Structures are given as C-alpha cells and as structure tokens.
Predict the structure.
Amino acid sequence: MKIAVVGANGQLGTEIVKVFADEIVISLIQSDIEISEIGSVKKAFAKNQPDVVINTASFLNVELCEREREKAFLVNETGALNLAMVLEEQKIPLLHISTDYVFDGLKKSPYEENDTPNPLNVYGASKLAGERAIQANCSRHYIVRTSGLYGHAPCLGKGANFIEKILARSKEKSELRVVDDEVLTPTYTLDLARQIRALVKTGGYGLYHATNNGSCSWFEFAREVLRLAGSSTRIVPVSSKEYPSEVRRPAYSVLSNSHLASIDLDRMPQWQESLAAYFE
Ligand SMILES: NC(=O)c1ccc[n+]([C@@H]2O[C@H](COP(=O)([O-])OP(=O)(O)OC[C@H]3O[C@@H](n4cnc5c(N)ncnc54)[C@H](OP(=O)(O)O)[C@@H]3O)[C@@H](O)[C@H]2O)c1
C-alpha cells in the first residue's frame, strides 16, 4: 500500500509514518502542501498517486482559533474541502482526523457517532465544518474523531503534551492544582496510529470515534502521571472556574468507539494501560 501522510511531522503524523514504515509512505509537511490552497493540494497529488491519503493537518490551538476565526475555518474547513475535491477527482480515499470538541459536553454517557454535534468553540465549529465538507465532496472517506492526544513527538500546534507539562511543573512546585470537572479520554498516538492502519485497510468508509477506552478528568489523568513517574508532588482537584478562559470547552467529551466495535475492529486499550506504555 502507498500512503500519503499530510502533517507528517506533527504529533500524530510522526507516529503514523512510523507505524506504516514497512509500506510505501509519502511524508508531506507544510512546505510540500498547504491544504488551504487548492493549487498546492492539486500539485502535491499530481505526481504522487497514493492508495490512500491520511490528513492530520489542522489549526488546533483552541485559544488561537478563537482569536483567529478566519484562519481556523480556512485551514480546518477549506483545507478539508480542498483535499476532498482533489482526491474525489482522482478516486483516492481520504482518512481525515477530527475531534471530540464537535460535541457540547451535555451528554452524561459516551458520545456515539450518530449523536448530534453542537460545538462550543471556534475550533470545534471549524472541525465540524471540515467533516461536513468531506462528507459532501469525497465519497471514499473515513473521518476519525479522537481526543486528548499525547505521544513522543511534540504537538506542533500546542507545544509539549499534557504529561510533559505536568512532569515539568511537578519539578518546580510542591503542589499542583488540576481541573476535575472536564472529563475526556486521553489517547496515545501510537494506539491511534495502529488503529488507523487497521481501519484504512478495510474499505469500510464512514465516521468513526477512536480514542483509548475508559475516561477520566484532567485531575485523574495528572494523578496517574505523577504516580507512574514516582513523584511525591501533592495534587489537588479544582474547578475549571479557577482557570478562567476565553474559550468554552465541553465538560464531558468522552467518545464511544461504537462503529469500530460494531465491525469488530476496536483495538484501543484502556487509557491507564496506554499511559503506562508511554512511560516505558
Ligand atoms: N492534539 C490533540 O489533543 C487532539 C485532540 C483531538 C483531535 N486532534 C486532531 O488530531 C490531528 C493531529 O493533531 P496533532 O496533535 O498531531 O497536531 P500537530 O502536532 O500540531 O500537527 C498538525 C500538523 O498539521 C500541519 N499543518 C497545520 N496547518 C497546515 C496547513 N495549513 N497546511 C498543511 N499542513 C498544516 C502542521 O505543520 P506545521 O506545524 O509545519 O504548520 C503539523 O504537521 C488534528 O486534526 C487535530 O485536530 C488533536
């Protein structure tokens, strides 16, 4: 299989390139393809004719998206549309990464693929617009929503991942105060990359949720990080009101991998198991 990875130097892209190392991989970074420009997208796939394109590229800094609405939609909606149109013309399947932030967090049980999205912020709205552009313009698509990514490569849009930030702070402070009223599923990029590899070979196009299994608050996640690191730093659960933000975030954005499970393809381990694997 010949796979093109857009955003190949990003946190998830780096892991996808590694997981497909025994196949033919075309790694595309922003100097090779600017997804918001249709001419650049056409040029990138004029010579390279992959069997599938995996798009991880996104403008994903939630605070910046709020301030730079036009850019958020340009990259996350128009970028997705450009890929969809060019790949549809060439009959190349597109696997596109989306987010749990398409939901408003009011549900009290894990969101399934057929739950109605209702984003609370510009990032979520622009990612949902991207999903819809792909659904309307690319017949061979997989849309994979995920959440709380961490991996060994840094997130280019946001910097160090949550784990590394907690570990760094635990060395500077005797007490950490972490929000306990935002619940999600932290997801290890290595697991997600392996899941994507399994999915992309099925030809079963559609919308998928793919996160590690289980859920926790940011506080519970940080507590487990400190435990695994053997840190004695005290950790205290606090309300998100303690950290006022210009951006509204869903209080509960746990996703159920229902579609994957229905085709017997849910390969995602429990989040605690994956976090321990990350530490190894
Ligand atoms: N990180 C999370 O916690 C999280 C949670 C849920 C969903 N997601 C989704 O997962 C995907 C991957 O995220 P990630 O953590 O791997 O992010 P990342 O490390 O910031 O990687 C994003 C990649 O996109 C590239 N890119 C950005 N704008 C582009 C443009 N206009 N044209 C071409 N390439 C562009 C970046 O390249 P440059 O840096 O060179 O611009 C980078 O390689 C995204 O779709 C994101 O929405 C992430």
Summary: The CA atoms of residues 6 and 28 lie 5 Å apart.
